[in-house]
Structures are given as C-alpha cells and as structure tokens.
Amino acid sequence: MMAIVLLRLAYLTMANAFAMVRLLPMSDRDKDVEILALRHQITVLERRLGNHRARFTPSDRAFLAALLHRLPPGMIRRVMLAVRPDTVLRWHRDLVARRHAAASRPERSGRPRTARSIRLLVLRLARENPGWGYRRIHGELLVLEIKVAASTVWEILQEAGINPAPERASSTRADFQRSQAGALLACDFPETVTLSGARLYVFAVIEHASRRIRILGATAHPAASWVTQAAKNIVMDLGEAGYRARFLIRDRDGKYPALFDAILADAGIEVVLSGVQMPGMNSIMERRVQTCRHELLDRTLI
After folding, report:
1. Overall average pLDDT of the 20-37 stretch
2. Sign of CA pseudo-dihedral 21, 25, 31, 37
3. Is 199 helix (H, G, I), strand (E, B) or coil?
4. What pLDDT, on a 0 to 100 scale, did the predictor assign at position 38?
5. Element spanning 178, H or E
6. How far apart are alpha carbons 176 and 100 in whole angstroms?
7. Higher pLDDT, 262 or 279
8. Any idea of the CA torsion for 24, 29, 31, 36, to the nearest 10 degrees?
9. How far is CA 6 from the centre of its chain?
C-alpha cells in the first residue's frame, strides 16, 4: 500500500513540475486568466457536489499538504480549495507525524532475539536429558548464571520441534521398531494363481531398515523340507551381504516347521511370532504383499 502511495506521489510531483515549466513563458495576464478559470471550475464543482465532499487519495493529500504548508495560515484561508483550510493543515500535521514515526521506528520490533549460543545450549540440554522439561532446563541455566525467562526456553524448544518431556521420555511401539529396524526381518508366503489355475506359494523376506525384499523361491507344495532349505538360504544370503539381523517376524502359519526356527536360532536370529489374527504386528510385510498383489499379480498373467 505504501509503495503505491509513493508511486502516485512521485507521478503527481513530476506532472506538476512539467506544468510549472509550461507556465514560464506565460505572461502575468495569462496566468491571472487561468487562475480565474480554475477558481470558477472549483465553484462549479462545489455546486455539483452539494453536501457531498470531494474524496482525496493519500497521494493527493500529501502533495497538497507539501505544496501549501509554506503559505501563512491567513493566506491559505483566502485560497479557494475543494476542502477547508484547516483540513489542509491537518494533512500536513499527519504527514510530518508519519515521517517522524517512520524515522523513529526501530529496525526490529519486540525484545532482542536470544543469543545463538544460549539457544544451542538449551537444545543440547533437552536432547541429552529427555526427562527434563522447560522449567528444569530454565533452572539449570540459572545455575550457570544464564538469565533467560522460562517462557523463552519453552519457545526455543517449540521452534526446534522438541516435544514436552513426558513425550520425549516415553517410547511407543513405532519408536521401538524405528530404532531397531536395522536388526529386524519379516517373512511371509504370498499366494498367486497361474494361468493354468495352479496355486503357487512365494517365500519372501523383507528388511525393515531398507525395505529390500528377498524372494527365496516359489513352489506349489511348501513342504517342511522346502521351507527348511529356504531358512538355510536366508542365513547364507544375509552372511554374504554382511547383514546382521537379530529378529525375524512371522505369522503362525503351519507351513513353518520347528527346524525352520532352529536353523535361524543357530545363526543368532530369534523368531518372533505375531499374534493370532493380528496382521498389524507384521504390518510392513503385509503392506508389501498387498502392494505386490494389487499392482503386479492382479495385472500379470503367470
């Protein structure tokens, strides 16, 4: 808004400067005639407006106030204007007040920003001590003779996205899975039907950390010997890849023989069984199976 007012004011200044240049070659008689013509036009305008007042834009007010403020008050009252002389004087006072306010306005409003070193110290205390709330951190800062308000400490933690102490100190199942993702595996037997109507069982293992899926074979008859060999293949593949897993999540399907769990236990991998009819405990594998079925198997003839 202010930029538009300044642009219009600059335009009015330039236009009237060229108008003054046009007046230079005119004689005093011609100027008097033009003044009388302008005064008569103002009289006609006032008669047409009646009880309505002419509306001036902020740029018009600033220009008239700057143009007439050097005239004595008595002279201004004798000049024929579309507004009262007191109004022009009030415009000039407002213009001076705004200019003074703009010059006196500080570069930055409000209290000064907290020093960067203090902000870093607050964040460090919060991260290294999950059980400390903003009031405890405020007390520790006072011990170090750092005087900041408790509300300032709260604002620093909020801006950094650090949750309150009870939420930081507790861990959910999702937090545990994210922290232990590098040591978690999951397996399942997705089913697919071929073009001839035969049903195939695909044995797949997924790494929680990288979401990499290992397909260890497909068979129409997942016998105990075949599943046991698949367990040996898992151990060999992980050993060649240098991947150290500690847990493998699977459901309670009868296709898994006891020897399957024993082979993994010898390799240092503990088998974790999901609950009965609780696919959410193996959600990552179940989600991948559904994605593969909807986006690949349902659109492909095998």
Report:
1. 64
2. negative
3. strand
4. 63
5. helix 173-179
6. 61
7. 262
8. 180
9. 34
Q: From residue 279, how far is each of 7, 18, 273, 292 by CA, in Å?
A: 67, 84, 11, 16
Whether the CB-CB separation of 234 and 243 falls below 8 Å is answered with no
Q: Is 246 found in the same domain as 184?
A: yes
Considering the domain architecture, whether residues 7 and 100 belong to the same structural domain is answered as yes
The pLDDT tens digits of the residues spanning 262-275 come to: 999 999 999 989 88
* Residue at 287 is within a domain: yes
Check the CA dihedral 167-172-176-179 and report its sign: negative
Which H/E stretch holds residue 10? helix 2-23
Q: Which pLDDT value is given to residue 6?
A: 63
Distance, CA of 204 to CA of 237 (rounded, Å)? 13
Contact call for residues 255 and 204 (beta carbons, < 8 A):
no
In a domain, 109, yes or no: no
Name the domain count of the chain.
3
Q: Where in the sequence is the domain holding 86, given as residue range(s)?
A: 2-104
pTM listed for this prediction: 0.44
pLDDT at 120: 92
Question: What is residue 265's predicted lDDT score, i.e. its pLDDT?
Answer: 92
At 112, give phi and psi (nearest 5°): -65, 150
Which residues are registered as beta bridge partners of 188?
A: 204
Phi-psi region of 97 (alpha: psi -120 to 50; beta: other; left: phi over 0): alpha
Within a domain: residue 110? no
Q: 62, exposed or middle or buried, with CB in 10 Å at 0-12, 13-18, 19+?
A: buried
Whole-angstrom distance, CA of residue 47 vs CA of residue 59 = 25
